[in-house]
């Protein structure tokens, strides 16, 4: 039926096209020619084309061009076809719906359209464990040896819990609380080490008309909340929570985390929920630069994001891990990292794996590092300068690293754990939902996802 | 005494009307003017109060948007697509609307109803099925012609636009055609004119104001459309203006170039404003004569 | 003599292109939407599982969908009524009164309708801004400036009405022009004789204007439903993204979220089917309820 239909369609449209062929030859057929030309080349066996798609982020599109050129020098028989776009999901999504897959996709989880999550949920990824044991092209070490340990043991990189890695960690950045260090110096305040100190500071700041807390959008609570769960119950508790273990949200540990968020909601600048959308979140970040709020959860990219924004006199970026729950307790900073992966249906999975291995070479890493993109390669963070040095040294000064995210499940219609856990924070700030309602909703969502967990 | 009283109440009434009209006019002019002013601000000015006047005239925004953000070439794509879509639409919808409105034939009620039902179909959920269909077509094309022709093709995009606009356009036009007295065709038939000539030479010229209305309405929707365009044109070079604008707005964790973005906004807005001002007189006229009486 | 064959051929050639396009690009995709609503499909794999009406049963048990439904219906009702009232009021002012700058007002009022949603959302972000926004600045003229700012886009109870405000702003001009067009067809003599009988303006409006443009009003009711469903989606995507915490989630934004973000394409299409049937039914009901005897001028 479908085939017949498309043939009929093809026939009708060819007729109309033939009539108007002259009109659109300029733009339409030129680009249509390009992939066809590549196909014939591939068939002749001289070179093979590797299709690489990457999300254009703050690091820019040029860096990928540079990587492609460098790789083509290392591997002359491979030609790289790049798709770099800020709306990558919209650009490659439709094509993939009909079976046209890039070989390599650089796009992390947590994007607005959740394309990567969809592939994980559908078991639609190529197993990349092998890449870990591959020797980096042009070097003697394997990828595994070069990587900072821990990055390939997370629920994000190994989504199915059987120990195999399907998504490779790329650029990482520590997440925590950002503040104006200049203001703290000026007022003689110290950065709180525990949440109790935090609340005390909050009351002090309130007296001066400064709110304690701001957040760009509720989406930024993921890193915050993951770190908080680690503080409350340790990594093992965190893992159980991420796997929707029964009753986990009613435990004492979870209650501690919920209490902090609920209390924080009371200390949040009042206008934050109104600007917590994609058009206006910058205004919530501006609150820190204007000394209207003290802390916000964020990642290192915020420095670039706000680079053109005006700021209070003496403003200086400060960055800290989350305060500890008890005196002397563990402090955590969540490690955010982007992922690169290969769709299960990629035509050149073998080439894709080699290409990914190359990305961890010293050559590639230094190209990325030039634009501030830091991969989890041993020794990379020592080479950093300026603000970045401060940020990446957070783990050296005692904070523990938290990694991972809610485990992937088969799609459950109408249930979104991140909307339930993080999205509700807006409602806590405006007081239209209570903490108990929040916990209740999380428990319910968690219950319905448990059955859909990937086995 | 009595007339005096009436006179003053009349003046009071007029006064109220003016207040209301001026209030609405201000509510519209101020924000639109604001968008224009924003387009000549420098990026740093956007972090302060949005209502501050620009510190200077920063026309660099427009050059940046036009060249760096490639809005210039996107504009060309938009012009081509919109022009083709409008011509296709008129050529296809006018005869259909005419026939549906003025001829009784087997199935005429059915087709009238079906096109009416088409009004309820929303592009937002059929865009993916359309994409899949075209892509399957491309797969067969690749084996027949050796190259895909349906996706990344401005003509096909225009064709889809025209198809999307059919229900509303036919509805609008046939409404108008229904109001014409039968005598026109009878007279033409006495003069020996065939069906086709009657339609082209007698009826169409009378429908001019309605056609202008149709052109304006559809120009606006084609020009501002981005969901279909984003899906069917995946090659970056082939973007249309609104999609280019969306890309300009997607900051992805880097500093937003507000100035450029608002310059882009103005570039999208300007052609529609110009066209509207050019045809606005005909607009009301077209609807007056048109079938919007129902 | 009667050229039946020619007539048939003429009808065929006039209708065929439109019908073909219509079937290919509207009917078949719509059928596909109905078909996919019976499947469970993530969107990027080959295995589509047929699940019958399961997507629909899940939909009707989902609290979120009811919230979405409520928001959408609220928007349809409020936006339609407010737009309708204002458009009618301004249309009758502009077509019944002799005013200075009549043409100017008419041109200006239509402008919001020609702007892209992206422009409108940027404008309203600036109007609704809690600290620097025009609206709060204006309200502060009447109350102490130190009182808490109103969170037009942040307060769950207000945000949907803020959305209404933007949508009404955008739509008034369009419907105003429509009503003006049909008011222009009402013969002046009717008003003149009413004037002689001493009928007030209000009386003339309800006794002459409304009944005589009734068919037009009925038509626009259908437009209100169709366009509010569609526009509310575009506005939500541009302005709030469905937030805060789902308070502005509408039919189509929820559909998008499920079909693309939550990897439940089939479920998303089920929402599409419900929206289609709902708008169709609503229009039919309204059409039946508003049926009146047709008045001729």
Automatic annotation (TrEMBL), chain A:
Chain intervals with Low complexity compositional bias: 24-43
A Pfam family this chain is assigned to: SBP_bac_1
InterPro entries, per database record: Bact_solute-bd_prot1, Bind_CPR0540, SBP
Keywords: Signal
Region (Disordered) location: 24-45
Signal peptide range: 1-18
Claim: Transit peptide is one of the keywords in the record: no
Gene3D superfamilies for the chain: Periplasmic binding protein-like II
Protein name: Carbohydrate ABC transporter substrate-binding protein
UniProt source species: Paenibacillus aceti
UniProtKB/TrEMBL annotation, chain B:
Top-rank taxon: Bacteria
Record-linked InterPro entries: BP-dep_ABC_trans_perm (IPR050901), MetI-like (IPR000515), MetI-like_sf (IPR035906)
Gene3D superfamilies registered for this protein in UniProt: MetI-like
A UniProt-annotated Pfam family: BPD_transp_1
TM annotation in the entry: 12-37, 79-101, 113-134, 154-173, 211-233, 261-279
Keyword Chloroplast annotated: no
Segments forming domain ABC transmembrane type-1: 75-279
Keywords tagged on the record: Cell membrane, Membrane, Transmembrane, Transmembrane helix, Transport
SUPFAM superfamilies, A to Z: MetI-like
Compartments reported by the entry: Cell membrane
Membrane topology: Multi-pass membrane protein
Principal location listed in the UniProt entry: membrane
Family the UniProt entry places it in: Belongs to the binding-protein-dependent transport system permease family.
Stated name of the protein: Sugar ABC transporter permease
Automatic annotation (TrEMBL), chain C:
TM annotation in the entry: 12-31, 73-95, 107-128, 158-177, 221-244, 264-289
Domain ABC transmembrane type-1 intervals: 69-286
Classification via Gene3D superfamilies: MetI-like (1.10.3720.10)
Membrane topology value: Multi-pass membrane protein
Annotated InterPro entries: ABC_transporter_permease, MetI-like, MetI-like_sf
Matching Pfam families: BPD_transp_1
Cellular location(s): Cell membrane
Keywords: Cell membrane, Membrane, Transmembrane, Transmembrane helix, Transport
CDD domains found in the cross-reference section: TM_PBP2
Family, similarity comment: Belongs to the binding-protein-dependent transport system permease family.
Protein name according to UniProt: ABC transporter permease protein YurN
Annotated organism of origin: Paenibacillus aceti
Underlying gene: yurN
């Amino acid at each position: 039926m479908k085939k017949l239909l498309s043939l009929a369609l093809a026939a009708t449209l060819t007729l109309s096209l033939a009539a108007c062929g002259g009109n659109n030859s300029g733009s339409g057929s030129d680009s249509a020619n390009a992939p066809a030309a590549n196909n014939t080349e591939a068939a002749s066996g001289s070179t093979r084309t590797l299709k690489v798609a990457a999300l254009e982020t703050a690091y820019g599109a040029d860096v990928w061009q540079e990587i492609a050129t460098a790789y083509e020098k290392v591997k002359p028989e491979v030609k790289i076809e790049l798709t770099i776009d800020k709306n990558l999901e919209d650009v490659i999504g439709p094509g993939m719906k009909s079976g046209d897959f890039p070989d390599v996709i650089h796009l992390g989880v947590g994007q607005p359209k959740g394309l990567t999550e969809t592939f994980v949920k559908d078991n639609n990824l190529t197993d990349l464990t092998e890449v870990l044991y591959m020797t980096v092209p042009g070097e003697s070490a394997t990828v595994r040896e070069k990587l900072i340990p821990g990055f390939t043991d997370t629920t994000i990189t190994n989504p199915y819990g059987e120990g195999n890695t399907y998504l490779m960690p790329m650029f990482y950045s520590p997440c925590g609380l950002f503040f104006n260090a200049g203001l703290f110096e000026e007022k003689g305040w110290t950065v709180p080490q525990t949440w109790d100190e935090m609340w005390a500071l909050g009351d002090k700041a309130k007296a001066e008309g400064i709110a304690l807390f701001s957040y760009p959008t509720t989406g930024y609570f993921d890193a915050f909340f993951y770190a908080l769960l680690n503080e409350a119950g340790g990594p093992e508790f965190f893992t159980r929570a991420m796997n929707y273990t029964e009753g986990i949200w009613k435990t004492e540990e979870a209650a501690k985390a919920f209490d902090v968020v609920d209390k924080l909601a009371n200390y949040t600048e009042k206008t934050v929920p109104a600007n917590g959308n994609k058009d206006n979140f910058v205004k919530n970040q501006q609150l820190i630069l204007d000394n209207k709020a003290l802390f916000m959860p964020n990642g290192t990219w915020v420095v670039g994001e706000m680079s053109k924004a005006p700021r209070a006199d003496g403003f200086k970026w400060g960055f800290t891990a989350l305060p500890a729950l008890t005196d002397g307790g563990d402090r955590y900073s969540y490690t955010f990292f982007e992922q690169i992966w290969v769709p299960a249906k990629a035509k050149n999975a073998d080439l894709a794996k080699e290409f990914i291995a190359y990305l961890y070479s010293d050559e590639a890493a230094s190209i990325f590092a030039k634009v501030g993109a830091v991969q989890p390669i041993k020794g990379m963070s020592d080479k950093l300068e300026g603000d970045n040095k401060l940020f990446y040294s957070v783990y050296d000064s005692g904070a523990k690293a938290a990694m991972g995210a809610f485990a992937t499940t088969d799609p459950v219609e109408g249930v979104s754990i991140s909307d339930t856990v993080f999205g509700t924070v807006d409602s806590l700030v405006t007081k239209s939902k209570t903490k108990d309602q929040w916990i209740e909703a999380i428990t319910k969502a968690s219950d319905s996802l448990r059955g859909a967990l990937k086995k | 005494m009595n007339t005096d009283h009436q006179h003053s109440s009349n003046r009071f009434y007029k006064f109220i009307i003016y207040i209301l009209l001026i209030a609405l006019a201000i509510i519209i002019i101020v924000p639109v003017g604001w968008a224009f002013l924003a387009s000549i601000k420098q990026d740093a000015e956007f972090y302060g109060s949005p209502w501050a006047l620009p510190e200077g005239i920063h026309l660099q925004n427009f050059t940046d948007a036009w060249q760096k953000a490639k809005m210039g070439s996107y504009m060309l794509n938009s012009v081509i697509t919109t022009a083709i879509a409008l011509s296709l639409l008129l050529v296809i919808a006018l005869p259909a609307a005419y026939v549906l409105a003025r001829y009784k034939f087997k199935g005429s009620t059915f087709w009238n109803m079906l096109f009416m039902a088409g009004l309820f179909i929303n592009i937002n959920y059929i865009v993916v099925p359309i994409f899949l269909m075209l892509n399957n077509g491309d797969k067969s094309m690749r084996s027949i012609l050796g190259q895909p022709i349906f996706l990344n093709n401005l003509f096909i995009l225009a064709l889809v636009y025209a198809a999307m606009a059919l229900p509303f356009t036919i509805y609008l036009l046939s409404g108008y055609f229904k109001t014409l007295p039968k005598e026109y065709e009878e007279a033409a038939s006495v003069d020996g004119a065939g069906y086709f000539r009657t339609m082209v030479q007698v009826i169409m010229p009378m429908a001019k104001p309605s056609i202008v209305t149709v052109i304006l309405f559809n120009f606006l929707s084609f020009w501002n459309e981005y969901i279909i365009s984003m899906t069917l044109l995946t090659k970056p070079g082939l973007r249309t203006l609104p999609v280019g604008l969306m890309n300009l707005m997607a900051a992805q964790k880097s500093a937003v170039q507000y100035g450029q973005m608002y310059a882009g906004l103005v570039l999208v807005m300007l052609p529609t404003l110009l066209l509207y001002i050019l045809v606005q007189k005909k607009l009301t006229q077209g609807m007056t004569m048109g079938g919007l009486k129902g | 003599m009667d050229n039946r064959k020619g007539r048939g051929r003429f009808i065929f050639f006039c209708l065929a292109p439109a019908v073909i396009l219509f079937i290919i690009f509207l009917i078949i995709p719509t059928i596909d939407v109905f078909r996919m609503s019976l499947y469970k499909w993530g969107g990027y794999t080959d295995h589509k599982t047929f699940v019958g009406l399961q997507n629909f049963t899940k939909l009707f048990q989902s609290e979120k969908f009811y919230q979405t439904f409520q928001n959408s219906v609220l928007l349809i009702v409020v936006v339609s009524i407010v737009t309708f009232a204002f458009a009618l009021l301004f249309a009758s002012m502009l077509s019944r009164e002799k005013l200075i700058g009549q043409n100017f007002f008419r041109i200006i009022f239509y402008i919001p309708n020609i702007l892209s949603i992206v422009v409108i959302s940027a404008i309203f972000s600036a109007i609704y801004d809690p600290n620097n926004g025009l609206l709060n600045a204006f309200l502060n003229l009447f109350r102490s400036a130190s009182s808490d700012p109103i969170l037009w886009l942040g307060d769950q109870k207000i945000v949907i009405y803020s959305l209404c405000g933007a949508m009404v702003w955008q739509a008034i001009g369009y419907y105003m022009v429509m009503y003006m067009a049909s008011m222009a067809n009402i013969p002046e003599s009717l008003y003149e004789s009413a004037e002689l009988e001493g009928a007030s303006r209000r009386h003339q409006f309800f006794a002459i204007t409304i009944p005589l443009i009734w068919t037009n009003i009925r038509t626009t009711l259908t437009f209100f439903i169709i366009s509010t469903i569609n526009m509310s989606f575009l506005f939500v995507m541009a302005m709030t993204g469905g937030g805060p915490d789902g308070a502005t989630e509408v039919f189509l934004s929820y559909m998008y979220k499920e079909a693309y973000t939550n990897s439940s394409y089939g479920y998303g299409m089920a929402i599409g089917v419900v929206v289609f049937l709902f708008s169709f039914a609503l229009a039919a009901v309204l059409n039946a309820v508003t049926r009146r005897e047709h008045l001729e001028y």
